[in-house]
Amino acid sequence: MADSFAERFAAVRAALGPLVFGADPHGPVLRDWGLNDDADGLERFTDIVLGAAAGTVGLIKPQSAFYERHGWQGIRALARLVETARAEGLLVILDVKRGDVGSTNAAYAAAYLGDGAPLQADAITLSPYLGLGAMGEFVDRARLSAAGLFVVVRSSNPEGRAVQGAAAGGGLTVDQRLLADIGALNARLAPGVVGPVGAVVGAGRVDPPLDLAAANALLLAPGIGAQGAGPADVAATFAACPDRVLPSASRSLLAAGPDAGALRDAAARLNQELRALL
Amino acid sequence: MADSFAERFAAVRAALGPLVFGADPHGPVLRDWGLNDDADGLERFTDIVLGAAAGTVGLIKPQSAFYERHGWQGIRALARLVETARAEGLLVILDVKRGDVGSTNAAYAAAYLGDGAPLQADAITLSPYLGLGAMGEFVDRARLSAAGLFVVVRSSNPEGRAVQGAAAGGGLTVDQRLLADIGALNARLAPGVVGPVGAVVGAGRVDPPLDLAAANALLLAPGIGAQGAGPADVAATFAACPDRVLPSASRSLLAAGPDAGALRDAAARLNQELRALL
Q1: Domains within chain B, CATH numbers bracketed
Q2: Do B157 and A79 touch (CB under 8 A)?
């Protein structure tokens, strides 16, 4: 059996640091880099990002939306990115935020998890409006392939509170309840160790509190730099379990491009800073 | 300015009936139809479904998961389905259930809505865990292109209650509050007429009640037949505004294939049945 995603994260964290490089080819980034805002520009973008990321960070997170924007040619570029990154030893978290009824989730799981998946990632993100209980197909396939899942629990944007801050019973908000349910699931799936079901938790907001350590989950913290939270905020928010946090930066890193050396330096610097704090 | 999605739905409903043909190439369906479970099988599947749907129903709804399962070749098949269906006069609802922070939603909107989108649909589905308030880019682009949006409000699966049934304040559950917010948005965007922001509402569950008529929204009711609800359930659930309901059937129709005539007969029969009830 392959090492679990949590074990593989621990290894790359020890070797290089916890930073996740967000490979998000926003239109403005492509323009700033002198690339065409088309599928060809995406291919060039991924080459530059891979050149900077490999050996500098342990993880890369492409956001699917920026590839879907270019249709099937964009997905072809994404597939090449995912495959090349994994071949170079990077862990790939594919940020797709999928989530549907069970039979549809089975198809999504087959698309992104396990041998034979056309875009096989090491981990994917999921969106839980249709319920954690509908995600059994994701959990089963993640376990079979030693992959990871990151369910959005508390997003970094304020508009998310309308749903995430609702009262889910027992004195818990929706996000608190979801994290507790993830913890119960991990305790059953992987007793005593960090489980396969992680959570996406924005670094900025701490109220109401989340019992982060109890979930025995990896915690993906997106948007470091661009969405308002810096390394010190990450350290403060996740003080209860700093070794389980995966801070992700995209636009704040990509601003250093397109020079691969400058990109690499920016990523190495941020990784060192996070390593010292977490 | 083109007719709004609501106006175009009203026209096809009057001509043919309200049924939405769910084009969901589940693995077992492909096998039952004697097709390969690969991108080539998908292309054959879409040809058969288009042959049966055009002239029989007014709307077709491909579920993206079943195309993503075959990587970029699957997305290429989906793009051809969407384009061909629209050229043949079908309205296409692309079931993608996307939803993220604002800047990512802008990329998703560019992928699926408006001229120049690589997979231009007439309407798409959205998932609101990150908030209706983060969907401004979808709303703006839908208005510019006279497209429709369907935000999941109440899903047809019981596991969804963990989030959708939480208490969102003012005595409303999350789904009730979301539908009220959609109604307020439609009243601002399209005063006095059916607005561009619709809702996905499962046909089976009626408790707690949803104020369906007040939202001035189209209502997509998925999974007729396969997920437990029949035409009579649709009529009962949506009695307050039967002319705004889009009942969608997939597996229960596809069971009549692969013969195009048998598929067409099954769709025509169900469309007639729904037309008589709604």
Answers
A1: 5-277 (3.20.20.70)
A2: no
